[in-house]
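The methods section describes the discrete structure representation at length, but only in general terms. Since the whole study asks how a given chain folds, the encoding of that fold should be made plain. An entry of this sort, consisting of the sequence and the corresponding backbone structure tokens, reads as follows:

. . .
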Amino acid sequence: MTADPWPAPRVRDPVDVVVSLPGSKSLANRALVLAAIADGPSVVRRALRSRDTLLMAAGLGALGSQVDTSGDDWVVTPEPFVGDATIDCGLAGTVMRFVPPVAGLSTGAVSFDGDPHMRARPVGEVLVALRTLGVEVDDGGRGALPFTVLGTGTVPGGTVVIDASASSQFVSALLLAGARYERGVDVRHDGKPVPSVPHIDMTVAILREHGVEVDDSEANRWAVASGPVRAVDHVIEPDLSNAAPFLALAAVSGGRVTVRDWPEATTQPGDQLRTILALMGCEVTRTDDGLQVTGPDRLQGVDLDLHDVGELTPAVAALCALADGPSHLRGIAHIRGHETDRITALATELAALGAEVTEHPDGLSISPAPLHGGVWHTYADHRMAHAGVIIGAGVDGVLVEDVATTSKTFPGFAGFWSSLL
């Protein structure tokens, strides 16, 4: 077993490694949802085997689909959603938000719950939207887990106005199931700017691959036409957000890290690491193997609006704490509703190790300061664990509490990380 807290390996010399990453959780879970409501069997190839994806597979299986996860390629055979079911969301926002709109197509009572912290994560906008579209939901007025979707086998659908400023997943959740609704779904956002828009682009792209008609020609409006969902086999791209700690290793050590099979074109927000690391002084190039990052002699501070790529904030903040100049990370108020309040968690943990950090409502300011060892708490958040190991690579004596939380998107992360150093 891995020690807890886990001594994060310190890098002493420039690294020179090539790594292959597990598949994208975001792509895999979208592919699984569409496979479960498609017109025939399909295969999700190179599926990420992690807690989040296994919870998604189990949830869709509880509804009635057959999801064979025994091999590297997962076979999904749609079946009618008949009877009552219980869905464990764990800490997976995609399960909590993507499965209820699908559960409306069931003929039973589908109950949702998850880990204790999930009861604090926002989902109320999805539940209100489902009621508007004709789905009965019993949430006891909480707008949060636990809740029950009372399906009737069909969903009328239609137009719905939501405030998706807390999570782009609110939009994606409704779009993924919309083609199976009698009138499709026309989702309109009214509120502050939607965060993580690349994730909505990812949803729209995969829907079109399944032959679903999507109109996103107007700002803050996405319309999915009622119609068939074609069965499509998917090969899942590497999880580019999971590349953050590995590419950061090049930045911290002044060495070189290559991530294999980096796609030429992608909707994944993690692709923005190329731009962010270049701004911090890294050399970023494409090779025959993938994406190669070479670290600088001195890391530069940055002023970044991470609104569209908020999930990268923990890794970027860790690098900023190791940089030679001040940094400002803005536009990320929504990440307070992620696996934990990531802004407060980062400010707390960085300050505990000596960083000069100021917490703002929508971000962080970080100035150069000598860092020291200590326990880095993860709050059951895999991205916080990634931030901890990045700090540990550059600072002696960092102990990462509950590093096993990385299994959410990267099973065996701690052993793999240690093997590189």
About this structure: Residues 25-222 form a domain with the UDP-n-acetylglucosamine1-carboxyvinyl-transferase; Chain fold (CATH 3.65.10.10). The longest strand covers residues 109-113.
